[in-house]
Amino acid sequence: MDFGLSDSQQSLKDNARKFFSTHCPMTEVRRLADTDSAHDTALWAKMAEQGYTGICFSEEHDGAGLGLVELALILEEAGRALVPGPFFSTVALAGALLDATASDAQKKKYLAPICRGQARSTVALYESESAWNPAESRIAAENGRITGEKLFVPDTAAASTILVVARNSVFVVEAGAPGMSITPMLSMDLTRKVYAVTFANTPAEKLARPENIARGLDCATAALAAEMTGGMQRTLESAVQYAKTRKQFGKIIGSFQSVQNLCADMLLETESSRSAAYYAAWALQENAPDAAAAVSIAKLYASDACRTVGNRGIQIHGGMGFTWENDLHLYYRRAKACETTLGDASWHRERLARMAVDTVAVPPAGV
Amino acid sequence: MDLKLTEGELRFRNELRAWLESNLPSDWPAWREKSLDDSYSYLRAWQLKLYDARWAAVCWPAEYGGRGATLMEQAIFWEELARAGAPPMANSLGLGLIGPTIVAFGTPAQKLRYLPKILSAEEIWCQGFSEPDAGSDLAGLKTEARLDGPDYIVNGQKVWTSYAWLADWCELVVRTDPQAPKHKGLTVLLVNMKSPGIEVRRLRQMTGESEFSEIFFTNVRVPAENVLGQVNDGWNVAVSTLMHERGSYGARLYLLFKRSIDRLIELSHSARKNGQPASRDPLLRQKLAQCYAEVEIMRLNQLRAFSRISATGVPGPEGSLQKLFWSELNQRLQQIAQEILGPAGQLLAGDPRAIDHGIWSYGYLRSRGNTIEAGTSEIQRSIIGHYVLGLPRSY
Ligand SMILES: Cc1cc2nc3c(=O)[nH]c(=O)nc-3n(C[C@H](O)[C@H](O)[C@H](O)COP(=O)(O)OP(=O)(O)OC[C@H]3O[C@@H](n4cnc5c(N)ncnc54)[C@H](O)[C@@H]3O)c2cc1C
Asked: Scanning A14, A21, A177, B179, which has its CA 20 to 30 A from the CA of A46?
């Protein structure tokens, strides 16, 4: 039993950190945040060259053949660098859902181009009535055509295909298919754009194994928790760095205990999020019996922690932390979006309660 | 990263499981309502049983009665005991903190003399660190030891010493060089608690019981061969004990926390709240799930820390993260238990309506000590700030 990263996992992570800091520094993040789609084809091509776009998918489908822990490590570093654009949507969300629900032929058609860096995709899940729960989805499909509306669909403008989750089924829609329209939603996170997507009698291909929708979404959720951990890590580093240099009352502010306490709590929450995210990824990879519970544990914890870590990070920076110029708000915005995406803390607590509370036998003695 | 058990770990776990199946006492729940003094003999007997089968401290070298097990096997050990609902062990300070310090700093003769009896619970140990004027500022302690021929002569006072009243031995931190800077003049002595000149006065805690005591030392003679580590290097020895207390004691406590949350979930199905089982109450479900998640994260954090220590060889100041997490988690857990159980959760052992022999009212009160003992939360956060994150010292 080893909960440390192997040498190859560590070097994958180290390389990803170097790669993102070279090819996607904060100047680039800010530039892309100001564009419509936050997507950069040159950056995408470089990420594909590294094998990131197919990291956890089989070599048969042109992937790198690594596992979900490796996906989590790349996402963590992408989150730390605040990489804008459709990486999470394409690889962790759509890629994982395709991997779980598509037939082999469908994977060759839709997943392999993603692995090769030629295609980008996303998942349309959220509806105004059913939120993140696919079983309550209202979108209707008839004779291979779908009709309805999806909201908060990430990176739709950059996607070449869209996976639409309906009740007990998933469909693939080609970008620009008849009857489909996308409208940008002006939301807080500037680095991952979201869209309202409507379908009217739009042709769609049904994916073969809808019974695995939950697994696909769980893989995405674990990866998202890892991405959130990366954002927390960067916020922590930046707060500690500032606390070591800024002086007031003739002293480094990091020598004030109330500032130290904020930093200590940030570290505790970041590390705890990391433990839970890594474990969830591993449990899914191994099909452990507690994998679904582990995913909810990771997401519920990270959802609260990414917000409180962000709060403290801004507080430590004082007025500087409240400026547009300081990068923290870009992370803070992403954190808020991630907090709700694929279910917020209370959503996952309820899901966990169904697994861990409702399944326990009632003891005989009354209280 | 691979959390599957290795073949060796699997063998270890299966052997332990089989042993527990045939040796786990079934009458433990009934013993919990007895006073600490009474149940202690029970826990001592349970530990002796573990010792006879070499399960008392699996990590210790085989020559002293351990199994030379890895840290991961130690984690497996506590998870299995939690799973089986086993009682804790009597000599927890000896096993968890003081024994490992003797393993690290003791002479071969000291190891042979002390370790097996710690394991068998034949000799109970206490930790004589805190003093009335030296708690958080431990290095400011004043109890002094003067060399007089072959012996040190100890004078001074310790306080809050857990289990001092039933301890046979004490890991005592004393000042041997009053001239030196405060961290440099300390020495650790292994002191026989039956020595003339030692007086133990039990202190009553807010729980009503008397787990800790004051100890007064008046011209107590301690043979110089009982110095643990080097003379005037006692700070390093004491810090090693504290590292164990903060870094790995959580693995031992997981046994208690896991049982608490599992039991609380059971009780939530029969405890009524707002006209329905508490387990159906939307707010309480949220709190239960949060707590369940945090107990799991406590396990995962500990496993990750063990993996890191296995790779680097030393427990570092990161142990303060574990201590901070479990101490505050237990306070949240006990509060949620009170919310679920309602006023019945306040009933004390002995009341016929008390739930689970009063463990919940006890647990609620006892958890207040968690953020004070083994270094307060304020001190843990400062250690994390300075030693882990590299911020300037605040004091
Ligand atoms: C149940 C229990 C069991 C114990 N068992 C043992 C034992 O077996 N052996 C033993 O030696 N000791 C034991 N202790 C003692 C324990 O280690 C001390 O109580 C603890 O270290 C705090 O010291 P103190 O009580 O002197 O409080 P103080 O140090 O006086 O602290 C009082 C308050 O001031 C805060 N404070 C102090 N210094 C700072 C600072 N620099 N910055 C910020 N805040 C600060 C503290 O956090 C605390 O809130 C036990 C305590 C408890 C509650």
From this structure: A177
Q: What is the CATH number of the domain that holds A136?
A: 2.40.110.10
Please name which of B61, B80, B65 lies closest in space to residue B10, comparing C-alpha atoms. B80
In tens, the pLDDT along A106-147 reads: 999 999 999 999 999 999 999 998 889 998 999 988 889 999
Confidence of residue B28 (pLDDT cuts 50, 70, 90): confident
Q: Among A89, A88, A83, which residue's Cα sits nearest to residue A29?
A: A83
Determine the residue among B259, B279, B296 to mutate to test chain A binding: the one whose Cβ has the most chain A Cβ atoms within 10 Å.
B296
The predicted-structure confidence for B201-249, as pLDDT tens digits, reads as follows 999 999 998 989 999 999 999 999 999 999 999 999 999 999 888 888 8
Cβ contact A255–B391 (<8 Å): yes
ipTM of this complex prediction, to 2 decimal places: 0.94
Ligand 1 contacts CB of residue B163 (under 6 A): no
Residue A179 lies in a domain: yes
Residues A253, A281 share a domain: yes
**Does residue B254 have a pLDDT over 90?**
no
Residues of chain A in contact with residue B294, where contact means CB-CB under 8 angstroms, are 301
Whether residue B313 has pLDDT greater than 90? no
Q: Is B143:B131 a contact under the CB 8 Å cutoff?
A: yes
Tell me the C-alpha distance between B209 and B96, whole Å: 22
**Do A14 and A64 fall into the same domain?**
yes
pLDDT tens figures, A27-81: 999 999 999 999 999 999 999 999 999 999 999 999 999 999 999 999 999 999 9
For ligand 1, the distance from its centroid to the CA atom of residue B373, given in whole angstroms, is 6
CATH number for A323: 1.20.140.10
**Residues A205 and A241 occupy one common structural domain:** no
B127 lines ligand 1 (CB under 6 A): yes
Nearest to B265 among A243, A346, A360 (CB): A360
Q: Calculate the dihedral angle through the C-alpha atoms of B129, B135, B140, B143, rounding to the nearest 10 degrees.
A: -40
Distance of alpha carbon B314 from alpha carbon B331, whole angstroms? 29
What is the domain extent for residue A181? 122-209
Q: Is A159 exposed, middle or buried (0-12, 13-18, 19+ CB in 10 A)?
A: buried
pTM: 0.95
With CA atoms as reference, the chain A residue closest to B291 would be A349
Instruction: Tell me: do A255 and A187 sit in the same domain.
Output: no
Min mean pLDDT across A240-249, B18-27, B215-224 is at B18-27
pLDDT of res. A366: 42
- Say yes or no: A313 and A240 in one domain: yes
Nearest partner of B73 among B51, B58, B85, judged by Cα: B58
Name the A residues in 49-108 with CB < 8 Å from any B CB.
69
Q: Give every CB contact of residue A196 below 8 A, 6+ residues apart in sequence.
A: A149, A150, A151, A153, A182, A183, A185
Cβ <8 Å between A367 and B380 = no
Positions of B marked catalytic: 245
Query: Whose C-alpha lies nearest to ligand 1, atom 23?
Result: B135
In order of start, what are the domains of chain B with their CATH numbers?
A: 7-119 (1.10.540.10), 125-232 (2.40.110.10), 237-388 (1.20.140.10)
Residue B116's pLDDT is what?
95
